Amino acid sequence: MARSPLPSVPSRLLDVEVGDTARKGEPLAAVLTPDGESPYTDVADRLRATGKAGEVHVVPGDEGPRWLVGVGDGTEKQYRAAGAAFIRAANSFAEAESNAGRKVPKRVLVQLPADVGSERYAAFATGALLGGYRYRVSSEEPKASVRAVRLLTTDQRAVPAHEDAVNRARELAASSALARDLANTPANVKNPAWLAGVAEQAADDVPGLSVTVRDEEWLTAQGFGGVLAVGGGSASPPRLIELSHRPRGATTHLLLVGKGITFDTGGISIKPAEGMHLMRTDMSGGGAVIAAMRAIAALRLGVRVTGLVPAAENHVSGSSYRPGDVVRHYGGRTTEVANTDAEGRMVLADAIAYGVQRYRPDAVVDVATLTGAMKVALGLRTGGLFASDDELAERVRAAGERAGEQWWRMPLLEDHAADVRSDIADVRQAPPGPGGITAALFLREFTAGLPWAHLDIAGPARSEKNYDEVVPGGTGFAARTLVELAASYGT
Questions:
Q1: Is there a catalytic annotation at residue 271?
Q2: Which range is least confidently modeled, 40-44, 179-183, 290-294, 478-482?
Q3: How far apart (Å, rounded) are the C-alpha atoms in residues 379 and 456?
Q4: Cα 170 → chain centroid
Q5: Looking at the DSSP assignment, which residues form a beta bridge with residue 107?
Q6: Which of 37, 66, 105, 164 is the most exposed place for a label (fewest CB within 10 A)?
């Protein structure tokens, strides 16, 4: 029997549409709020349905809706949670119908409350699009699932506005899904060249996005010592992936830099075996940048954006870099290596220095699964935000709020700035002290004083269980925030 190929990238998502009509025989879900009026109040009372966000009840019998779906107090977050919970229930129904030999519905309907605005339609759509995401490499046929959802409104005049909001939500959800695809792809497939190839494919699909891939010879000629050091121990050479969106008339230039470590053994400072398999997701920051750039171009945002993803494998061999080495980065700055498992900041330093020197952007944002310290400080659902500029920090936070991704601003403590200095080089890579803060202070050394934000996603980039619109595996965290951040500079 032939082996099944890897899942396609990007993954196919649900078709989500808006309308005011329903076809006979299509399963229907009705949305409930705890205190809202509903034509199905009697049914809800019988089922003891509270309307809590994400609560889904199956309605027995063939009359009326098949599901009641709670949206709680009706915030956008709760609508996203409801959309995700509903699509999981609908997919379970489709699988059961298939297993019983019955016809699987091609489309399901969702009746939203009459008085909600377009932003709630978008939030429910986001939850459904991402809550139903699946990534599995298997010889078995994929499980049956719902392929389309129609969100029903009783106001025909509102359909165009709701459709616009849902279409935008689809692009944002697609960015999260692509970032998940990239993170979930096994490392025996996903080397730096593969990651660069996917970025090139993304550019082929979307007008207004261009990609240039720099190989190891170019990196050597240009002096990317950090990328070359980290990638030097692997049989798969490193790459620099450069993505560009340059709309006419744009007056602001945003630089995005994402860590692209396609697998991280820790190098000579090798990681424990337990948990090392998860290091296929260590390029989640780079995946978020690639995915965000695709969405930025697809949405035709009126801001110039450059994305840089330094991609490398951190492996163990006779050519691996060592603790005690001194590495010269792009632009000449030198770093004393203390721990080869602190490789992310090594490749980011090169890319930030290159982007700043070549483009002189208005703002710089880097994103990376950088430090375990952030997992300890903020847990697994909140990203760490460091920034040298208050306005940029607020833009990122607000972008995350619109996207449904939570950030917490962390301090750049000047008391620890001296810790980053080295006796034998310009800076040292992994000084003692608070790990997340000293890592951010190290990266700041390469920003040339420009407005800069560092997003540490070590916690929320991966999940081991379902919550809200998140599923196990790579989460795609930060991709939607980066798109909303770019949108804040120009539409």
A1: yes
A2: 40-44
A3: 12
A4: 14
A5: 148
A6: 37
Pairing of strands 28-32, 210-214: unpaired
Report the pLDDT averaged over residues 399-428. Answer: 96
Q: Does 51 score more than 70 pLDDT?
A: yes
- Report d(CA 80, CA 126) in Å as an integer: 6
Length of the chain measured in residues: 491
Does residue 14 have a pLDDT over 50?
A: yes
pLDDT of 62 > 90? The answer is no
For residue 2, what pLDDT is reported?
Answer: 45
Contact 479, 176 (CB under 8 A): yes
Strands 210-214 and 239-245: antiparallel
The letter for the amino acid at 334 is T
Overall average pLDDT of the 220-228 stretch? 98
What pLDDT is recorded for position 4?
47
Beta pairing, strands 56-58 & 148-152: unpaired
Maximum alpha-carbon separation in the chain: 77
Kindly state the tokens that stand for 325: 């080495």
| Residue 293 half-sphere exposure toward CB, CA atoms < 13 A | 35
**Under 8 Å between Cβ of 202 and 294:** yes
Find all residues with CB under 8 Å of 400, minimum gap 6, and list them. 383, 406, 407, 481, 484
Q: What is the mean pLDDT of residues 193-219?
A: 96
Return the amino acid letter for 115: D
User: How many angstroms separate the CA atoms of 44 and 60, rounded?
Assistant: 12
> pTM for the complete prediction?
0.96
Percent of the chain past pLDDT 90, that is, above it, reads 82
User: Which of 120, 168, 345, 397 is an active site residue?
Assistant: 345
- Active-site choice (134, 271, 381, 402): 271
Catalytic residue status for 168: no
Sheet of strand 326-328, all strands in order from the earlier edge strand to the far edge = 326-328, 334-336, 427-428
